[in-house]
Amino acid sequence: MQEILSYIDKNKDRYESELKEFLSIPSISTAPENVADVRRCAAWVRDELKRIGMKQAQIFETAGHPVVYAEHMEAGGNAQTVLFYGHYDVQPVDPLHLWDAPPFEPTVRGENIYARGSADDKGQVFLNLKALEAHLKLNGTLPVNVKVMIEGEEEIGSPNLETFLEEHREFLKCDTVLVSDTPMYGYDTPSLCYGLRGLCYIELEVTGPNRDLHSGSYGGVVVNPINALAHMISKLKDEQGNILIDGFYDKILPEDKRERAELSKLPFDETSYKKDLNVNALVGEAGYSNVERLSMRPTLDVNGIWGGFMGDGAKTVLPSVAHAKISMRLVPDQTPQEIAKLFTKFIEKITPPGVRVKITELHGGPPAVTPIDSAGVRAASRALKQVFGKEPLLTREGGSIPIVEQFKRILHAPTVLMGFTLPDQNAHSPNEKLNLPHFHKGIKTSAIFFAEMAKE
Amino acid sequence: MQEILSYIDKNKDRYESELKEFLSIPSISTAPENVADVRRCAAWVRDELKRIGMKQAQIFETAGHPVVYAEHMEAGGNAQTVLFYGHYDVQPVDPLHLWDAPPFEPTVRGENIYARGSADDKGQVFLNLKALEAHLKLNGTLPVNVKVMIEGEEEIGSPNLETFLEEHREFLKCDTVLVSDTPMYGYDTPSLCYGLRGLCYIELEVTGPNRDLHSGSYGGVVVNPINALAHMISKLKDEQGNILIDGFYDKILPEDKRERAELSKLPFDETSYKKDLNVNALVGEAGYSNVERLSMRPTLDVNGIWGGFMGDGAKTVLPSVAHAKISMRLVPDQTPQEIAKLFTKFIEKITPPGVRVKITELHGGPPAVTPIDSAGVRAASRALKQVFGKEPLLTREGGSIPIVEQFKRILHAPTVLMGFTLPDQNAHSPNEKLNLPHFHKGIKTSAIFFAEMAKE
After folding, report:
1. CA distance linking residue A161 with residue A155, whole number of Å
2. Which of A210, A233, A312 sits opposite B230 (nearest CB)?
3. Cα separations (Å) of B70 from B20, B48, B414?
4. Could you confirm whether A188 is annotated as catalytic?
């Protein structure tokens, strides 16, 4: 292993210049004008997989952007099989004027490389490929069987990946999925994410009178749909953060004391957190810490609201319709389907006389939690400890990565979320960056991870 | 008088084609892009006043849109002086897609002419000008002294009119003010409005975190400004229609039994009212009839709300800011100044931790009630009876015409509110319309009104 780590140290500069090439391709999956760039990026990844010595490197067409696949299956039938998943597509770059340097001209400043995709997810895809390369260059083979699947639609919600997994279910068979698409907990705080919240996202339309009315002439007897919507929203969650929808908490698994103990190890500096956001208070569900409220507890947020007159000045309208987009983050064993039903039933119960409601389910995904004692989590923990010198903290993420649930459901494989970026990486924002010392440590950690997987 | 009425009948078609010209000018006072149109409309009114034979027709500049003035003062020093007030500006037209025909291309369908401003207030301004024209064309003079003042900022709250009245206090001196900017009670129910609600219109901005956040990563501890705004709105008025702002009702005058008896004569068909608006219930303040809730009692309505993601689909944002426009209708002796203070104090009291609020007073006007036994009310009652064949009902309007209070306070003149549109006129809404038979009856009524004023 020492030989591999030395090799990685020696090739530091080459890794950076190759990464710049990868980052310079504007593979924005949502932008029609970048379709050719996305395809060019897929070809670049395929060629890179060939260069590092992976086999069967090829592009699979989908109904949208292609999936790149390669494998190296020479570790034998008894060895573990790891499927490494990542994505080569990136978020749009607007607002462009807030970038200090062009987003597709990777620039190194201080410890960081700045470019769209540097953190999310090209940099993290690339460091795993460099780990595989180190094994292959020095040993001609890998410690375990490895499949690599890099998609091009993660930033638009992976609309074709579930079908791809189902169609290639046998072919993608594996024991563990490795994903590097989450940040570490802090600069000197290696962490492994083992849980993700699910999502139930709903649009609510409240209709009062059949047309916009003059608020002077009708106000006083006609129920205003905005006022009604505000009353309804105020009944969904109280001001302390407790969700009031009947049955909402019923399916949540009993609390795991060991898990709460693990989460309590995570540092959370409330003062600097509030300062960063410029808020005078944090408010959440009673009986839980901030870390728990952000990860192992469900939430409800209004993501958007609109109705009536939104222009400058004063228009005295009593509007016909008001809208809200409302989403709930879910934890095991809540399901988006069941939560949508409870939400609908509750809304029907609290809809006041004088208005009608229409509920549209926009999208959802179940929560996913990987067992702490799975092979992948154990191997990744050992690898992180060797490189960062500390036992990694076990974290749960507040957001959703729907494919983690799909890997579990379709491939029956648990997912290890081993990420190397930092919380201030500006993913999805201007000046996205990747910390280069962490990038190099990530290559080493990944190389050790594959070796440790051979011991499982 | 018969000669004048015949003349009005004969000129029916001409009136309609001239009105169309007036209605085709998009004089939207709140829209910066229509400033030139508003000015063009003022010039049109000035030229029309010249055409019909009024004297001194001219445009007065203000800090905003101009006021058009003309007069005809040949009835002598002992005759009554009537100041006719109206406005040539109109409301915005959005949502444009709900209009059956372009709002500034007046279209006749059935008994109605459809256009923005047809009812509020160009059509009603125009019918009074046609009444003056009939007198002037046939008699070369008017039965009383008449001043005409048509402003261009009524729909944005007449911000410069009070100054104008104060500066020209002597010059605008009169015995009675005539305003035609209210609807009649029903198609066959002539009415005279003697009371108007006041208005206090406020914009509320609620700020949570200093930037839009990912609702998955931050949801659970960061207070969502939309949820907070909904909670605050739900505390302003309960679902029964009672306003909960501390001290809100304190300054309301004790109820007048005679007035409640008058109002109880007004027909109100709840079934057809609900059917017209397609609502399953009317809801309002306990202890008051629907007519009272619509006129002699105050209200609170959210006129607009916006924040977060309002596009198609699902964006999981925990937004930084949410906004609402909230207005309150006032009755004597509430004042907009005092109500704005109470509102601000109450909002400060109910602002939850984790968000900050900013309150902007957009516009306001005090309520106003005119004595039932004034000369103008008597003359108008006789005129309405002659044309519509019935004694007019005495009503109070739910809307606000702040200048009525200013006429009383600055010019010491009572205002007669003699309106000819119908309750389904869609003022401030798409497909605003004016009933043409009422428009013609209105011209006759106005002509008789000026003659009857000579008898007072």
Report:
1. 12
2. A233
3. 22, 10, 20
4. no
Alpha-carbon distance of A449 to B206, in angstroms, equals: 48
Verdict on whether the full-model pTM lies above 0.90: no
Active site residue A89: yes
CB-based contact A362:A67 (threshold 8 Å): no
Please report the DSSP string for A181-228 in residue order: -SB-SBTTB-EEEEEE-EEEEEEEEEE-SSS-EEHHHHTTTSPPHHHH
- Digit-coded pLDDT (tens) for A154-205: 988 899 999 999 999 999 999 999 999 988 988 888 999 988 999 999 999 9
Query: What ipTM does the predicted assembly reach?
Result: 0.84
Helix (H, G, I), strand (E, B) or coil at B247: coil
Smallest CA–CA separation between A238 and chain B, in Å?
A: 8
Using 70 as the pLDDT threshold, list the residues of chain A that sit under it.
none
All domains of chain A in start order, with CATH: 2-196+367-453 (3.40.630.10), 198-252+298-365 (3.30.70.360)
The confidence score (pLDDT) of residue B373 equals 82
Taken in order A44, A45, A46, A47, the sign of the CA dihedral is: positive
Nearest CA distance, B14 vs chain A (angstrom): 31
Distance of CA A326 to the CA centre of its chain: 19
Name residue, tokens 């929203």.
A233
Tokens of A301: 């947020």
| Per-residue pLDDT reduced to its tens digit, B114-160 | 999 999 999 999 999 999 999 999 999 999 999 999 999 999 989 99
pLDDT in tens, B71-91: 999 999 899 999 999 999 999
